[in-house]
Amino acid sequence: MSGIIGKKVGMTSIFSADGRNVACTLIEAGPCVVTQVKNVETDGYNAVQLAYGERKEKNTPKPLIGHFKKAGTTPKQKVVEFRDFRVEFEGQVDLGKTVEAGQVFVEGDFVDAIGTSKGKGFQGVVKRHGFGGVGGQTHGQHNRQRHPGSIGACSWPSRVFKGMRMAGRMGGDRVKVINLKVLKIYPEKNLLLVSGSVPGPKNSFVILEK
């Protein structure tokens, strides 16, 4: 599995060859620096660790400063490990080398995007779980359009089952969206245009896996 770290720039739309208007997301993918290469002999598995985004040295823990210096690079914001990096990158993912979007992806590839969804705070069941609400104002009901209704916990089981869909904190979760098509690559600017939406707000980190 190969991949790269990027930053969500925003959303736009383009017209496909058959005239359809396709919603897409612009992602600044890389450049990333290889900060560690793991192998079966020393670590028990094969993996490549990539780092992305500049970070002030005064805000970086000393162990991480030493880790980045070993790779010959400045402190980075985001570090991600990709296991079993594809064999065609042999020699390109040595310690300290730079990995760019054009080296990993080609137009037409399908990628998986991983990000942290927008935090929405405490939300009710209609927004959080898609409930329909209790209903209209018949049978003497009022002010209950967006309420959850009965949860079924009467004298038995005399408790609320774990996992019951109720109101609570929503968003801020790790979300993976699969099979997004790479529509366009701008290698000189390290930009990718992928179909569909990607989780997270603008300028948030995104992990792209191939």
UniProtKB/TrEMBL annotation:
InterPro entries, sorted: Ribosomal_uL3, Ribosomal_uL3_bac/org-type, Ribosomal_uL3_CS, Transl_B-barrel_sf
Alphabetic keyword roster: Ribonucleoprotein, Ribosomal protein, RNA-binding, rRNA-binding
Pfam families: Ribosomal_L3
Gene Ontology CC: ribosome
Subunit structure: Part of the 50S ribosomal subunit. Forms a cluster with proteins L14 and L19.
Family statement: Belongs to the universal ribosomal protein uL3 family.
Function: One of the primary rRNA binding proteins, it binds directly near the 3'-end of the 23S rRNA, where it nucleates assembly of the 50S subunit.
NCBIfam families: L3_bact (TIGR03625)
Name of the featured protein: Large ribosomal subunit protein uL3
Organism: Belliella filtrata
Gene (UniProt): rplC
